[in-house]
Amino acid sequence: MGGGWWEPVLRPGFPRSAGRWREWTRWRAVAPWRAAGYLLATGLTGLLLCAGLLVSAAVGGVLAALLVGLPLLAALALVGLPVAAWERRLARFLDGGRVPDPHRVPDRPGLAAWLRLRYRERATWRELGFTLLSAFVLWPVDLAVVGGALAVPGCLLAAAPLLLLDGEQVKVLKLWEVHSLGTAGLCGLAGLALLPLLGRPLALVAAARAGLVRRLLGPGREERRIGELVRSRARLVDAFEAERRRIERDLHDGAQQRLVALRMTLGLARLDAPPDGSLAARLTEAHREAGEVLAELRELINGIHPRVLTDRGLPEACADAADRSPVPVSTRFALPGRFPAPVEAAGWFAVTEALANVAKHSGAGTASVEGRYADGRLTIEVADDGRGGADPGRGTGLTGLADRVAVVDGTLTVSSPPGGPTLVRVEIPCTPADGGEPARWT
């Protein structure tokens, strides 16, 4: 906006001693009409909250003797969630700055998991405290400030029109009587002068209240630290997967092609060499060794990041891993489509590591791999009919597998009683990358 009373409440040149205040206001320009609307909305919200909380607490307290009111009293602890969401939206209306939601997403779907997480979060209790503060302390201040800032200039401006309607006198601000139209006009001019003067304190109070919302209802230091860790972990995962793909591409297009050319050259040289000489025998041995190195390189490339995972998706990549397993493995998937690359890579890694454990440690005769998607979670189960007794402390790779799955917020569950069978379940919260199609078994 332009100069005058539309200017920002605080400017970048504000003293350094007001650093906390500067953080609250975010150095945004707050127009007085927005400040008035904001304080009016928060004041009315607090008034309704005050009445609603008093009635709910009274009803819950009366019914608590019959144990019927206990759920109502327990639910009152969560009343801060919708109130905080509304306050964050109002703060954004005031100055355009978004207040992040401090709550985490539950690890599991369902109401029970959501309630368990919400009751354990500090943000829930901060929001409840702010709700009580708004309902019993802040709303009278909000309404008093906005009423004083608008009522005083409004009464002065209305003096002349009211005098014209009455014809004799008008009582201005319930303090003095005005009988002449000239005096009423002076009151109107005073009201016009007060509008910009009262606009700045009004905007200042609104900005201070929005700063309190950001401090109490936004992410705390711990939540911000956790959020930054999650974001940095996601960046590391993306960088790790990109590096794996680069190595796989370089080996496939570089070293592998040169080995293929070398093997062809050795084959042609063997054909030109005398068949009964020592040179032919050495060329044959070199040709065989080159073939073995090429096969090992292909296995290494497939282990880094299989091309079939990128081209065909998780079910085909797991089927390819099952075909390579020395233990007969059946695969069955019901997925709605492709998933984000980190999710597919984590799922494929879990399957290959679990099948490697089956081949090395279980003594199983058969194994199975099943994958499905429901309630926003990708679930993969690897089962075998082996001897069981899988122990992460014995170096079976389960600890590394759990760490790899945790990178994408997944969980690993192992059921392996002595004597078997063994079931490894991986659950990863995710959404289909292509929007999702009807699930199909493959």
Automatic annotation (TrEMBL):
EC number: 2.7.13.3
Domain Histidine kinase/HSP90-like ATPase: 344-432
Name of the protein in its database record: histidine kinase
Listed SMART domains: HATPase_c
Sections of the chain in a coiled coil: none
Transmembrane parts of this sequence: 35-55, 61-84, 128-160, 180-199
Keyword Phosphoprotein: yes
Keyword terms, alphabetized: ATP-binding, Kinase, Membrane, Nucleotide-binding, Phosphoprotein, Transferase, Transmembrane, Transmembrane helix, Two-component regulatory system
One Pfam family matching this protein: HisKA_3
UniProt xrefs under InterPro entries: HATPase_C_sf (IPR036890), HATPase_dom (IPR003594), Put_sensor_dom (IPR025828), Sensor_HK_TwoCompSys (IPR050482), Sig_transdc_His_kin_sub3_dim/P (IPR011712)
Enzyme class: transferase
